[in-house]
Design a protein that fits this description.
The complex is a heterotrimer. Chain A is mostly helical. Chain A folds into 2 domains: about 40 residues, no CATH class; about 220 residues, Orthogonal Bundle (MetI-like fold). Chain A is about 75% helix and about 0% strand. Chain B is mostly helical. Chain B has a two-stranded antiparallel ribbon with strand order 1-2. The longest helix of chain B has about 35 residues. Chain B is globular, with a radius of gyration of 24 Å. In chain C, helix 2 packs parallel to helix 4 and helix 3 crosses helix 4. In chain C, about 25% of the residues lie in helices and about 35% in strands. Chains in contact: A-B, A-C, B-C. Chains A and B meet through helix 1, helix 3, helix 4, helix 5 and helix 6 of A and helix 1, helix 2, helix 4, helix 5 and helix 6 of B.
Chain lengths: ~290, ~280, ~350
């Protein structure tokens, strides 16, 4: 299904027709992906106020403590979320790779379930369970224990929400990567007496690295500019780059500064983006 | 399967699957319970802290929510947006997907992989860059502005999945139809399309549902004029003191997703889907 | 019904030549088998006749009319594909009726023609079945019916039975031969199985690397292979390296008189059933290695004093002595040099 093969036979002679058929999507892609990025670069490097080339906008961003705090918070959230996500998903993927039976399919169904819960419903559920006077508080109260310090509107709010939201895709990619570990390789290692931990470190992990990097790239790309969950669950100040850009653009009506922020964010992600695209393209080719 | 599976099974019979039980229990608590809480909230007329169960159950807030004009207008906006975007996307992407799958033309591979470009950039950063352009074109806060931005979001899905679907159609089936006297268009209509239909249907459904829930583009480009269901939900969470409104809206909002869950399980469960994401 | 003429037909893919200047005349009602190993260009040849590949040179004529550039839908040919290529989203009737519907025939006529062709392939009453409810043999029959219903001038079959088991293959082969005879339809049949070609064909074309090695009736191709390749490809064939010296072919103690052949290295080709083996009290050219009983016949494995291995078909074999004491006498043979026949046993 994934092969991209050079077609032969009947289609050979229809060069112009093919280009014609793909023209509209390609135009849309160019107009709404390539052009905005180039135009964003030009707009921020040649600001209206300055006569020509100027790094003034970037200067302003990097000398503003509030902006830097937001950037720092975003980086922190990305790092912490990725780590927790991996800590949760690797065991899940390992379990799903090797287990069979009804319990395993139940675990798999649940692990895939968040894919079908829109983040905004997740945000609402989060507040009802972990928010002030939420389900957790109710249960603790019934047991005669003290209330929790709610993560709602703290930096941990977006972290928990984003981990929840990203579990399915992460598990899916890791499981698919684990599929590349052949059963005989594991059998053979067991045969020579490898314990589960040795097995994981020496046999499984080396073949998982590429999936793990893909997962990290994908998560970072998604998290760096996550908007909905940080906007609803996170603190108002400092805020993550997503809500920050939105506020700069819509509320402060400063599209030039918002573009600068967006360009900086893209600069931070460019390596992950390239890596991710390369792995997808490579996978798609073979 | 293989000997490994058998070994696992044998072991499972010897002692309980502790890892599975632990993971199952944890996921139930973390994933299922919050959803049950939301559903319970939507059916409770009165539920005051610190009661563990609602004091009074009923459909009071379902009636109240469904009577709200803003809910209906948001629903209409969301449905028309999702329909228009899906329709446009189908019309422009399916022919392109067919061309990528079956025709040979200049720059085909480069153009095909260029649809990944949108994935290489953080989404909201790209949205802000697009918004800056829309600002000059006066597309901000318009229906068609939101349509455009959501349309771009569906391109990758709506081209890559159908390309795979078209490539999976046995060429010989198409040749047999040519042989029987069908011209290229007739072959596409009578053979290729029906053969690829189940997968394409999943892609169309995913694009509809994805657009229905798309929040960030709608919020950035559409606000304040274009108010979709997810956007309305954000305002409910931030400004609505009556919890049940949000709960009812959540359950309502969830319906399309559950429909998609039923119909697209086959596609999403397949390893191809994960590989499409680079797994 | 129709005559098919291929005129110096050629096809190259990039730098590789699939078919090189191939010419053939298929007579009205004749069944010609294109036989060759995979990659010999036989399928490409068939696909050019069907219109699925455009030749890079030469032309295809049907009843004297040039159709080289005519697309498949406008050619009077019908193809049966290797994997049957039935349309799984239509039932049996829908598959067969598709071509008739495109031609906008009246409903009643479509029904009667589909019914007739279903009866022809022995599938009466199967019209409403889904294609996946059929066995492999039935699916292939539907594919044949689908091709026949359009009453093509030329029927093309591309290894149609390759995915079926031996038993079914033989039965379908007979049925196809039967139908082809009854309808008298000009047929081109691609196969890599020599049995299939020998049992079906009026004429066989043996292909190698896009060229015809030999064209002839099955008996002719079998009895008098034109090249060592044909000799080796069809049937079982012993090949003994040796040399011609003073009008005799020599391989160790084995000698054959040849007339008018210049001296030099040569290769003797002889089929197991054309090799008579006798006990030679004074020591002979070969020794017995093993005897295998196939039920219908027995094969003995021999080794010559020069170290060459060969097989011979014997009636009994139990009477043969162990050790080097066997005399070999080819009754029908050919001698090759540089891929050319230089001598043949007198007919």
């Amino acid at each position: 299904m994934t092969k991209v093969r050079v077609p032969s036979g009947a289609g050979e002679s229809r060069g112009p027709l093919g280009l014609l058929l793909v023209a509209v999507p390609v135009f849309l892609l160019g107009w709404m992906t390539v052009w905005p990025i180039l135009s964003g670069l030009v707009t921020t490097l040649f600001p209206k106020d300055a006569a020509g080339f100027s790094l003034e906008l970037y200067d302003r961003f990097f000398s503003d403590d509030y902006s830097l705090d937001n950037l720092r918070l975003t980086l922190w959230t990305c790092g912490v979320t990725s780590l927790i996500l991996l800590a949760v998903s690797v065991p899940l993927a390992l379990y799903l790779r090797f287990a069979r039976g009804p319990l395993a399919s139940y675990v798999q169904t649940l692990a895939m379930f968040p894919m079908f819960v829109p983040s905004i419903i997740l945000a609402f559920a989060f507040i009802r369970v972990l928010g002030p006077n939420g389900t957790v508080d109710t249960i603790l109260n019934a047991l005669g224990l003290a209330k929790i310090r709610s993560p709602y509107l703290t930096v941990w709010g977006p972290v928990i929400g984003l981990v929840w939201d990203n579990i399915p895709l992460t598990v899916l990619i890791l499981t698919s990567g684990l599929g590349a570990v052949p059963n005989p390789a594991i059998e053979a290692a067991r045969d020579v007496g490898a314990r589960p931990l040795t097995l994981f470190v020496h046999i499984i992990l080396p073949r998982m690295w590429s999936s793990i990097f893909v997962v990290i790239s994908l998560t970072i790309l998604g998290l760096f500019t996550a908007f909905t969950l940080p906007y609803v669950l996170g603190p108002a100040s400092p805020e993550m780059m997503g809500p920050f850009m939105q506020r700069t653009f819509s509320d402060l009506r400063n599209p030039e500064m918002a573009l600068t922020q967006a360009t900086i964010v893209m600069g931070f992600c460019i390596l992950f983006g390239l890596f991710y695209v390369r792995s997808v393209a490579r996978n798609r080719r073979d | 399967m293989s000997a490994d599976t058998v070994a696992v099974r044998r072991r499972a019979r010897r002692r309980p699957d502790w890892a599975g039980l632990g993971l199952g229990l944890a996921l139930t608590l973390v994933i299922l319970v919050p959803m049950l809480v939301v559903i319970t909230w939507s059916f409770s007329n009165v539920w005051r802290y610190p009661s563990i169960l609602p004091q009074q159950m009923g459909l009071k807030f379902w009636q109240a929510t469904l009577a709200r004009a803003d809910v209906w207008s948001a629903l209409v906006t969301s449905l028309s947006l999702a329909s228009v975007v899906t329709l446009l996307s189908t019309v422009i992407c399916l022919p392109a997907a067919y061309a990528f799958a079956r025709l040979k033309f200049w720059g085909r591979d480069v153009l095909f992989f260029s649809f990944l470009a949108g994935q290489a950039f953080p989404k909201f950063g790209l949205l802000v860059a697009i918004a800056a352009i829309f600002l000059q074109l006066n597309l901000i806060s318009t229906f068609w502005g939101v349509v455009l931005i959501q349309l771009v979001g569906t391109l990758l899905f709506m081209i890559w999945i159908p390309v795979a679907a078209f490539q999976a159609v046995d060429r010989r089936m198409e040749e047999a139809a040519r042989d029987a006297g069908a011209g290229p268009l007739r072959v596409f209509w009578s053979i290729t399309l029906p053969q690829a239909a189940p997968t394409i249907f999943s892609a169309v459904l995913l694009s509809f549902v994805g657009t229905f829930y798309e929040t960030e583009g709608a919020w950035l480009i559409g606000a304040p004029q274009i108010r979709t269901m997810p956007v309305l939900m954000i305002t409910f969470i931030n400004n609505q003191p009556v919890i049940q409104y949000g709960a009812v809206l959540s359950v309502l909002l969830w319906v399309p997703s559950l429909v998609a869950l039923v119909f697209t399980r086959r596609v999403i469960g397949s390893s191809t889907f994960a590989r499409g994401f680079g797994g | 019904m129709a005559r098919l003429t291929l005129n110096a037909l050629g096809k190259t893919f990039g730098t590789t030549t699939a078919v090189a200047a191939f010419s053939l005349d298929v007579k009205d009602g004749e069944l010609v088998c294109l036989l060759g190993p995979s990659g010999s260009g036989k399928s490409t040849l068939l696909r050019m006749v069907g219109g699925f590949e455009t030749p890079t040179s030469g032309e295809v004529l049907i009843d004297g009319e040039v159709v080289t550039r005519t697309p498949p839908e406008r050619r009077p040919t019908a193809m049966v594909f290797q994997s049957h290529a039935l349309w799984t989203h239509m039932n049996v009737f829908g598959n067969i009726a598709f071509g008739l519907r495109i031609r906008r025939l009246p409903k009643a006529e479509i029904a009667s023609r589909v019914g007739r062709v279903l009866a022809l392939v022995g599938l009466e009453g199967y019209g409403k079945r889904q294609t996946n409810q059929l066995s492999g043999g039935q699916q292939q029959r539907v594919a044949i019916a689908r091709a026949l219903v359009l009453e093509p001038k030329i029927l093309l079959l591309d290894e149609p039975f390759a995915s079926l088991d031996q038993h079914l293959r033989e039965r379908l082969r007979e049925e196809v031969r039967d139908i082809q005879h009854r309808l008298g339809i000009t047929t081109l049949f691609v196969t890599h199985g020599q049995d299939e070609a020998l049992s079906l064909a009026d004429r066989i074309v043996v292909l190698k690397e896009g060229r015809a090695e030999q064209v002839g009736a099955p008996a002719e191709v079998y009895r008098s292979p034109a090249t060592p390749f044909v000799a080796g490809f069809i049937g079982s064939m012993n090949r003994l390296p040796g040399s011609v010296e003073a009008g005799r072919f020599r391989h160790g103690a084995l000698e054959l008189p040849l007339e008018g052949v210049p001296d030099g290295p040569a290769e003797l080709a002889v089929r197991p059933e054309h090799l008579v083996v006798r006990a030679a009290p004074g020591g002979g050219a070969a020794s017995l290695r093993r005897l295998t009983d196939y039920g219908t016949h027995r094969i003995i494995d021999l080794e010559t004093s020069e170290g060459a291995r060969l097989k011979a078909q014997v009636a009994d074999g139990a009477d043969l002595p162990q050790g080097p004491g066997l005399q070999l006498e080819p009754t029908a043979w050919a001698v090759f040099r540089n891929d050319q026949v230089i001598a043949r046993s007198p007919a």
